[in-house]
Amino acid sequence: MPVSRRTILLAGGAVAAGSAAIPVEKHISWSGRDFARTDYDDDYPEAPEGEESWMNWSGVQRATPTEISLPVSEDDVSAVVASAPGHVRPFGSGHSFTGLAPSEGVMVDVSRLTGMKALDATTGQAVFGAGTRLFQMATELSEVGRALPNLPDIDVQTLAGSFSTATHGTGETLTALHDHVAGFRLVTATGDVLDVTRESHPDIFAAGRVSLGALGVITQYTLKTVPSFNLHRKVWVEPIDDLIARAEDLAGTHRNFEFYYFPHTGYGAAISHDLHKGPVTGRGDDIDDETLDQLKMLRNQFGWSPWLRRKIIGAALPKGTIEDFSDSSYKLLSTTRPTKFNEMEYHLPRENGIKALKQVIAQLETHKHVFFPMEVRFIAPDDAWLSPFNSGPHISVAIHAAVDEPYDYFYSEIEPIHRANGGRPHWGKHHSLGKDELMLLYPKFGNFLALRRELDPAGKFLNPHLAHMFGETFDA
């Protein structure tokens, strides 16, 4: 959505001239408002002497562990886990917004367990270190003519973090990333190593593909890959009511389909990807952050008047197709996004998704300060025990707030809508659910808890967030 600051301001002037002058007092009062939340802190926590300092990508999760370990091999991981006197938590890129990673004991950074270790030319299965970032995995696979069938929209996560939290892309026939796991190696609480496949350890395999890091430290994955493929990408803008009305049909028409809604504008942007044969055009410039800057500027200048805000963006936005090009799948499906935010994403049963989406939009727009786009995606089912998608097709609805702005309304106003519509939260994104709620949502949740206790009876891999979700007493 290539809209410049000048375009928006010109549109604002035209709208004001064509209707009524902008009330100067309201405009000035709103323009001087500070939108930052009072508890925002972008500095690492101050660690006591002899301890380390850690925080996640958005800064909302913070810890001062006794040690941050950087193992370079599986043997190193085994030694660290076996010798740790207290709690141990693995972490990767720190991109989860929930408290999965923090520990005041030992935090194990798996980012040095990286790169492709092997490729079976016959089966197409590839072995990667669990700390490999998604963009590195995709690049290394491309170099040998292979790919994953799908990718999420952000490519900085590690494989372990992505799979363990059920990270996904979009496409009604395409499953989440963890469904492409054929096996993994797991360091248990005793430091022993299990080589896990569906055949060798069926329960651990079913539980470990979305493990939340609660069963141990995963050191490597064997992945099912496909031959490299190219995609044709189209992005277009249209009124959100029209887009929502067509969303189900569009999801069934395109290999990958998703759409964004720009709050307080009445417009959305749709993105489709379909298989492409022949020469490619290459991907154009990434304008996501520029778009965010303009939406934020529109909020800052004209947020005091929802009517004016809609009129201005309606005049400034390009209509119809704004991107049309082709390239390798991994170059189109994922990007590295430097703009930080906080996010809540719930996965709704397909039959409730559009209804819930409309309710979320209506509630979000009771807040004039909201400007960050919301994202809607479609995901096929799989059979991992803690996969949010193991009960059938889902629509995912994600809302965002700028990293330094309030997001408390996620919990008080938006989460109840999702829960009333049978939603399951993304494990790595803001939610408040505990054991009682999760037992009702996941038929195999009790099986997962029993297996976790069997593998880790002393709770070495627990932290406060996991203890809350598992209904365990946490002894710091």
Structural class: alpha+beta
Strand order of the largest sheet: 16-13-15-14-18-19-17-20
**Content of β-strand:** 15-25%
- Please tally the β strands and state the result: 20
Count of helix runs = 15
* Rg over alpha carbons: 23 Å
Ends apart, CA distance between termini: 48 Å
Approximately how much helix is present in the residues?
A: 25-40%
Architecture per CATH nomenclature, i.e. the level-2 architecture of the domain at 230-425: 3-Layer(aba) Sandwich
List the helices and strands and how they pair.
Blueprint: H1 5-18, H2 24-31, E1 54-55, E2 62-63, E3 67-69, H3 74-83, E4 88-91, E5 106-109, E6 116-119, E7 125-129, H4 134-143, E8 146-147, H5 159-164, E9 181-187, E10 193-197, H6 202-208, E11 217-224, E12 226-227, E13 230-239, H7 240-253, E14 256-262, E15 267-276, H8 288-302, H9 306-316, E16 320-328, H10 329-333, E17 341-349, H11 350-364, E18 374-379, E19 394-402, H12 409-420, E20 424-425, H13 435-441, H14 445-455, H15 464-470
Parallel strand pairs: 3-5, 4-5
Antiparallel strand pairs: 1-2, 6-7, 7-11, 8-12, 9-10, 9-11, 13-15, 13-16, 14-15, 14-18, 17-19, 17-20, 18-19
